[in-house]
């Protein structure tokens, strides 16, 4: 099922080991507005989508090869989540993250260059080891395009 003009916001709850460091990372580093919160969780507005960081102090943050899948010759962390942005938003975010010293798993680059589905992408971890991907397309109609 596809929607022509608007998407419904998604909701994603994910574990973090420390709410204070997550509040700083998602709020100050990524620049996401904070919504409701309690002593064990925080809502963030991820470009109109609701993500909720739930504190789990004993979180296992394995980052070994068992968490990777090969895509375009790069080791992509799985699981991961993120948002498809407009290209100018993606470029601004990449610059902001670089300026804040975020260590990328996969540096910002153009994936599948010159092919169907060409996209800008970048991967990095939050302080709890959750992998995030932000991507953009020059032509958003390529989001689900096949060869």
How does this structure look, described?
This protein has helices at residues 19-29, 87-99, and strands at residues 11-16, 34-37, 41-46, 49-55, 68-71, 74-77, 80-85, 104-111, 119-125, 131-136. It has 2 helices and 10 strands. It is 16% helix and 39% strand. The model has no long low-confidence stretch (mean pLDDT 90). With 147 residues, the protein is an alpha+beta fold. The protein is globular and about 45 Å long. The strands form 3 sheets. It has a 4-stranded mixed sheet with strand order 1-4-3-2, covered by helices on one side. The chain folds into 2 domains: 6-57, 2,3-Dihydroxybiphenyl 1,2-Dioxygenase, domain 1; 66-147, 2,3-Dihydroxybiphenyl 1,2-Dioxygenase, domain 1. Pfam families: Glyoxalase. InterPro entries: Glyas_Bleomycin-R_OHBP_Dase, Glyas_Fos-R_dOase_dom, VOC_core. Residues 8-137 form the VOC domain.
Quick summary:
With 147 residues, this protein is of the alpha+beta class.
Describe the SSE topology.
Blueprint: E1 11-16, H1 19-29, E2 34-37, E3 41-46, E4 49-55, E5 68-71, E6 74-77, E7 80-85, H2 87-99, E8 104-111, E9 119-125, E10 131-136
Parallel strand pairs: 1-4, 7-10
Antiparallel strand pairs: 2-3, 3-4, 5-6, 8-9, 9-10
Protein name: Glyoxalase-like domain protein
Pfam families: Glyoxalase (PF00903)
Domain VOC: 8-137
Tags for this model:
147 residues, 2,3-Dihydroxybiphenyl 1,2-Dioxygenase, domain 1, 4-stranded mixed beta sheet, 10 strands, 16% helix
Largest sheet descriptor: 4 strands, mixed
Q: Can you tell me the residue ranges where pLDDT is under 50 for at least 5 consecutive residues?
A: none
CATH superfamily heading of the largest domain? 2,3-Dihydroxybiphenyl 1,2-Dioxygenase, domain 1
Q: How many strand segments? A: 10
Please state how the strands of the largest beta sheet are arranged side by side: 1-4-3-2
For the record, the CATH class of the largest domain is Alpha Beta
pLDDT averaged over residues: 90
- Which percent range describes the beta-strand content? 35-45%
User: At the third CATH level, what is the topology name of the largest domain?
Assistant: 2,3-Dihydroxybiphenyl 1,2-Dioxygenase, domain 1
Q: N-to-C SSE series?
A: EHEEEEEEHEEE
Classify the secondary structure makeup into a structural class.
alpha+beta
Protein name: Glyoxalase-like domain protein
Pfam families: Glyoxalase
InterPro entries: Glyas_Bleomycin-R_OHBP_Dase (IPR029068), Glyas_Fos-R_dOase_dom (IPR004360), VOC_core (IPR037523)
